[in-house]
Structure formats: C-alpha cells, structure tokens
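pasting for ref
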Amino acid sequence: MACAGLACPAGQAALGAEAAVFVPTFVDPHHQVEQPALVARPSIRFLTADDYPPFDFTAPDGSLAGFNIDLARAICGELKVTCSIQARSWDSLVPSLQAGDGDAVIASLAMTAKTREQVDFSTPTAKTPARFAARVGAVPAAVLPETVGTLRIGVQGGTAHAAYLAAVFPAAKVKAYTDPDSLRAGLKSGEVDLMFADGLSTALWLNGTESGECCAFAGGPFTESRFFGDGSGIAVRKGDDELRRALDHALSALSARGVTGDLYLKYFPVGFY
C-alpha cells in the first residue's frame, strides 16, 4: 500500500474473502522491550471513557466494550497481572490518573505537547491517517499531487487536512465545507470528486448506513505527523517508567503474536489504512 511518499507504520496484509486488508502496527518488530518484574504491582487499574465507539463504549448489558477495553485485558493477560477497568468522564481521566485513582489511562488520549507535559506515554496504540475517498465507479488508482489533475477535492475548512492540501496539493481544485456531514454529502452528491478527511471517521462512515455504499477509499494513507499528530497511547503518571516499560513490552508481544491485528480487524471491518 502506498503512503504518498510519506512514512507508513509497519503492518501486514491479512487475506480476506475478497482482498488483502492492511493491518497496521505501531511497534518496531526489531526492538525488543524487556519486561520489568512488576513485583510490587500485582494489578493494573486502567481508566477509560465510555463514549467513543468503537474504541470504548458501554455495551447493551452495561459492560465496557471496545478496542481499548479488549487491548487493556490482553495487556494484563500478557503481563500476568490482574486488571480492573473503570470508566470516567473524559475531562476527569488525566486528573484522576495524577491523583492516583488509577495506574494508566487507555482512552485514545492523543500524544501532544500539552499531554506530554502532564503524563508519560507508552508506544502508540493507534494513529489516524488522512485518506481520500471517491464515489464507487470513479475511484482513481492513486491520489498524488501530480495525478489529481482537474479533480475537485472537498475538505473541511480550518482543519489540518485543509492545511495539508494547501501545502502538498497547491494546484488542486479544493472546495471547503463547514462540517463533516456537509463534506460527505458533497462527495455523495457529486459536488466534488474526492473527499479528504481523517481515515477513522471516513472508514466508519463508509461502513455505516448513511453512506449508502456510495463511496470507497482512494489511494493510500497520509501519515505526516506534523499535520496529523503522533497518534494516541496509554498514559501513565510522569516518571512511572516501570509501568510504561511493562506496557511497551506487552504491546510489542501482542503485536508480534497478531493479537492487536485481530482486534483491529474486529472493530474496524473497513480498515482506515
């Protein structure tokens, strides 16, 4: 899969019924992380949110579910420690961690300059690339600055995606929309030939009923961190290097065994890479 000249995360192709599905991984397979003993820590108390499906949400039976929840349980199984997962409001997650009410936050917390001042992070657990989408039947094989030609590109104004188009696709014919819904409607109706947006929300839309199976991804992912960030990771208190290293070890082992890849395929049937 092409990354339009930008670095892609490592990954592998999982063969499905119709075509290969790219499964991303964000750990370096050549970098082995030694597992700390965790002698004084027989359990890990994870804090999460419950309002960001499919990463974390409340199931109909009232239990917590989602990619982050299953990943937390897999980590505890890998480290052979007991595990508790408690949902809290988004705004209270970092303060609760800092106050000692939990040991780690697994809630798709973005690794930004601001959050790095407050917490330390594990290896990334997810990154959201930017993707193009086009109407079915009019999907170009590649979408690059030199191939867009006269195609009309829709984007939400004032976003990192709009800034990226201006910087990397300066000659493109760009139409700005005020919100994601109007952007998707513009693609669906044919006002624009391509839509440029974050891959995750686009994948969920493509796989949902609102798209009416109108559209599909076009070209490969764009992963420039200067525009699209460094992804999200598991947060621990500043200086808790023992737990951070243990999490990194578990993430590396789970990735090598294909566990995180299986979770990706479970919760993202239309992959966003």
